[in-house]
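new request in #modeling-help
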Amino acid sequence: MADKYVHLIITRQDSPDSTPYKEEFKIPYRPNMNVISALMEIQRNPVNAEGQKTKPVQWESNCLEEVCGACSMVINGKPRQACTALIDKLEQPIRLAPMSTFPVMRDLSVDRSRMFDALKRVKAWIPIDGTYDLGPGPRMPEVDRQWAYELSKCMTCGVCLEACPNVNEKSPFIGPFAISQVRLFNEHPTGKMNKHERLEALMEEGGIADCGNSQNCVQSCPKGIPLTTSIAHMNRETTRHAIKSFFFS
Amino acid sequence: MASNSRDFFNHKLHSLLGLFPVGVFLLFHLTANYQATKGPEAYNETVAFIENFPFVLVLEFVLIYIPILFHAIFGLYIAFQAKHNVGNFGYFRNHMFLWQRITGIITLIFIAWHVWETRIQKALGTAEVNYDMMANILSNPVMVAFYTIGILSAVFHLSNGIWSFLVHWGITVGPRSQRVATYFTMGVFVVVSFIGLRAMAAFIQ
C-alpha cells in the first residue's frame, strides 16, 4: 500500500486575472479518502508530481457533509461537492478544476456572489418585520410542507449554474436555483403575501424566460431538488400573472 | 405587465408564434403537398385554390412571413446565447436542446432558399408555382438531399418545439407529463416526416 498513490491533475490560477495552468500531483493513498483530504495532503506537503516544491492548492470547504455548498468544483468534468467525491469511486487521474461559470479567486475557489445577488433580486426571503407584533402566521398544510422542504435543501452551491448551457458570460440568466427558491417562498403561507413581487422579478431580463429546458440542472443537483418541475410551475405562475395584470387589475 | 418585462414578453411571443401560426402552417403546407401523390393535376388544383384565396397576400404576411421572421431572428439570438456542453452533460434533454438549435438554423437556411426559389420567383414573374416547377427542382439529386434535410429539420424543430411549448407555458409541469410529451412529440415527428417526405417523393420522376 505504501507505493500506492492518488494522481491529481489540478487546474490552477494564481490570482483572479492571471492565466490558468495545470499542475499534477501524486499523493500517498489512504483508504476512504475524499477530494478534500487529498487537497489537505497537498496543503501538508506542497510538492507536485515532478518533485518540485509548489504553492499549496487553495479551495473552499466548510461542513464536509454536503449541506453548505462551499466546496463545489468540477471533478472529472462534472460539477459536484469535493467532500462527497470519494477517491475510491473516481477514475484516475482525477481532474479538478474550478467552476468556470463563476469568477475564479484562486485555484479552486470561486466567487459565487452572483447567486446571492440573484436571491436578493427575486426576494428569496419572507418579510415578517412590522412596527407591531404581527402575531403568528397562517399554518402551512403538512403535505405542502413536505415537498417545500425538498426545495429548501438548496445550498446555493452553484452546480446547476455550472451545468446549465444558458448560464454563461453571453447570457443574463440568473440560473435554475433562484426560480426554485421563488416557488419555495411563494408557497409559504406568509411568503405568499408578497408573491407578486417575486413573480415580477422572475419576469425581468435574465429571469425565467431565459430557461431553455436542457434540464441539465435537475440531472446535476446534488440535493435532488426537482428544479425543472419548479421551473415549469413558475412558468405557469408567471404566465398567469402576466395575463392577469394585462387584462385585469 | 411591468415595462421591464419586455424580454419575458419576447420569449413568450417566440414560443407562441412557433406553434401558432408557424407550426400550423407547416402542417398545412406538408398536407397540401401530399396532394402530389394523387398526381400533377390534383396538386396544381390545390395550388390554384390557395393562390386564388381571397386576401392571400395579406394572409401570407400576417400568418406566415412576419411570424416566421420574428421567430427566426429572436431564435438566432437565443441559439447563439447558449454555451453547449453535451460533452460533459450527455443527457437526452441536453442533446435535444442542442438539436433544437441546430435544426432551427438549418431550417432557417432551407426556408430562405426555398422561398427564394419558389415564392419570390413567382412574385418576380420569372416562374409559375406548379407541379413542374417542383419536379424540375427535384430532378437534381443535390436538391433532393437538401430538401430531405430541410423537411426533417423543420419537422424536428416543430415536434420538439411542441415539447418546449408545453413546458414554457406551464402545461406539462411534472416529470411524468414531460416524459409522455416526449413520446407524443417524437410520434408527431415520425408521422409528419413521413407526410413531408412522401409528398416530396411524388415530385421525383
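bot summary: The helical segments of chain A are 35-44, 113-121, 142-151, 159-163, 176-187, 195-202, 216-220, 227-247.
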